[in-house]
Amino acid sequence: MSRITRLRPAAFLAAVLALSLLVAAGCGSSNSSTSSGSTSASGQTVGNVKGGIAVLLPDSKSSVRWETQDRPDLDKAFTAAGIPHTIVNAEGDAAAQRTQADQALTNGAKVVLLVDLDSGSGSSIIAAAHKAGAKVIDYDRLTLGGGADYYVSFDNQRVGKLQGLGLVKCLSAGTTKTPVVAELNGSPTDNNATLFADGYNSVLNPLYAKGALKKGPNQSVPDWDNQQALTIYEQMLQSTNNKIDGVLAANDGLANSVISAQQARKLPKIPVTGQDATAQGIQHILSGDQCMTVYKNVNKEAASAAAAAIALIKGQKPASTTTLDNKSGKPVAASTSGGTPAILLTPQSVTKKNINSTVIKDGFLKASDICTGQYAQYCKQAGIQ
Q: Are 81 and 106 in contact, with CB atoms under 8 Å apart?
């Protein structure tokens, strides 16, 4: 005969509280945002998406956009269209992303919206999808050699060119005769980082050659990792005895690492570029710690990708704006074998002068996202309310 132990009131309440916390934790991990089945974090089960769309996001550290903007925008579009979908994030794990893709295909996905972690793992996902009879849209990043059916992104070489032009303009306002420029590039496994570098080097290299600028340290940041970027930039400062006059930082996260290092060493503010028009990046522009950022209206990108995916589900052909060679990412004729139809959106440069007329006007950011704490005074000076 089993013995039943009575819990005292305090102990009983503690047990109930512990159980409720466990339940809450379990519920919080599902992160559901699908119309059929469940959306999950890396390694969790992908629900039923028969005849629907699977979105494979890359991580949370290369940019905050994947979770704060892309996920809700895509979920909203697919939900409104009544299409079963799942949105998962590999959190930087290529093997996990392949597992997520396999689960989605097994569970009936007919379109895969892929943001790869590298072209090798991305190509294997595309091959698996095609074998299962599914279409693939490369989203934001082109999987080199993968042969996706469509590609939706921005003109990424133009992004880099805007960064280069912005940095040169900011440097020209200074007094240094031959400024030393450091380059903090994006992840070497991300084709977009290569395209950005192609763009800004098309501006900077001729100036290096002329002696108008001096090329300083130049290094890529693995996986766009901001902590590694901080370490790399600190090493750059060490190697140059703090003599860096401007930094081409490939996005706002890397820019923040540069700004943090400058501030920690109590060094003067210098021109630093960025990308993504994050709230933090805009704050740094207002405070004078960052020179500019590149605004890519992710809402429009997500809308274009969602429209293309929905068209494919309906058996229609999405309208493309150009064709890219899927091995080099360069524009080619539409009839070219191995060409990927692409929908490329136009990026915009953002400085202190046009914050109101770009990110605020479009509703991409709200004044309340930016004008917090110490930055409220800068918003007031810039007329942002």
A: no
Per DSSP, the three-state class of 349 is strand
Distance, in Å, from the CA atom of 289 to the CA atom of 247, rounded to the nearest integer, reads: 11
Six token digits for residue 58:
């890359």
Residue type, 381: Q
Q: What is the tens place of the pLDDT at every residue in 289-309?
A: 999 999 999 999 999 999 999
Are 59 and 25 contacting, i.e. CB atoms less than 8 angstroms apart?
no
Half-sphere exposure of 278 (CA within 13 A, CB side): 20
CA-angle at 286, arms to 373 and 270, nearest 5°: 115
CATH superfamily, domain 53-154+297-345, is Response regulator (3.40.50.2300)
pLDDT in tens, 310-361: 999 999 999 998 999 888 888 888 878 888 999 999 999 999 999 999 999 9
Which H, E and C letters describe 302-337, residue by residue?
HHHHHHHHHHHHCCCCCCCCEEEECCCCCECCCCCC
> How many of the other CB atoms lie within 10 Å of CB of 345?
17
Contact 273, 255 (CB under 8 A): yes
What single DSSP character describes residue 356?
I
What pLDDT, in 10s, does the model give residues 91-120? 999 999 999 999 999 999 999 999 999 999
- Are 74 and 306 a contacting pair, CB within 8 Å? yes
How is domain 156-296+349-382 classified at the CATH fold level? Answer: Rossmann fold (3.40.50)
CB contact at 8 A, 355 and 362: no
pLDDT tens, residue by residue, 176-220: 999 999 999 999 989 899 999 999 999 999 999 999 999 999 999
Domains in the chain: boundaries:
53-154+297-345, 156-296+349-382
**Predicted local confidence at residue 45, as pLDDT:** 61
- Residue 96, classed as helix, strand or coil, is helix
The DSSP letter of residue 272 is B
- Record the pTM: 0.81
Tell me whether the CATH fold assigned to 53-154+297-345 matches the one assigned to 156-296+349-382: yes
**Which residue, 222, 279, 231, is CA-closest to 252?**
279
